[in-house]
Amino acid sequence: MASMDLWAALLIGLMGGSHCLGMCGGLMTAVALQSPQRRPSLLLSYNLGRISSYMLAGALVAGLGSLLGNHGWQFLRLFAAIMLILMGLYIAGWWAALTHLERWGQRLWRHISPYTRKLLPVRHNGQALLLGICWGWLPCGLVYSTLSWSLSSGSSVEGALLMGAFGLGTLPSMLATGWFAQQMKGWMQNPWLRRLSGLIIIAWGLYSLRFLLHLH
Question: Among candidates 18, 46, 71, which has minimal Cα distance to 124?
Fold first, then answer.
């Protein structure tokens, strides 16, 4: 895996933070308010669980992708390059088609969501960790698109690293609460910054696409 892939995944997570705040911000605030004096440890435990689920999903998906052989790998890399371009368009605010991917995970989420309710209110780190592990499977177009990219990463370890980089990118927005969360959301929604980030991701996708076509 190229190190640029990890940087791109990190950037996707960082600039997709406003989407993450919309999906998980309410729960994060609820976790923080349950025990304000333990807010930092609870939030860290929750996010550790969430990112662990991302990495597990990345490892499973990449492991399946690695079974397809060389021709299958080339197809997956082509698919990954296209997904990168689509993610860049989403980050830049030019096309939000990736949000339609969220429907795919609704069936799985129906089985997991009852367990999240049993973990509330959160009173200790173990509960927060388990809640994060469950919440990591929440249907999210941004997560699914990055996960589909990890299909072509080559191995379970690299798939886990790719999703881990994406998860780390989401941390700043997910650890922010209250006034700071609103300030960060405003920063991440700055149209020029989002367009620049989107263009960087699109450029990396086009470069990957050009490299693959050159192989043929």
Answer: 46
Count Cα neighbours of 147 within 13 Å in the Cβ-side half-sphere: 24
Using 50 as the pLDDT threshold, list the residues of the chain that sit under it: 178-179
With beta carbons less than 8 A apart as the criterion, state whether 32 and 123 touch. no
pLDDT in tens, 23-38: 676 677 677 666 666 6
The amino acid present at 8, given as its one-letter code, is A
Q: CA angle at residue 76 from 73 to 77, to 5 degrees?
A: 85
Tokens representing 71 are 């021709």
DSSP 152-197: TSSSHHHHHHHHHHHHHHHHHHHH--HHHHHHHHHHHT-HHHHHHH
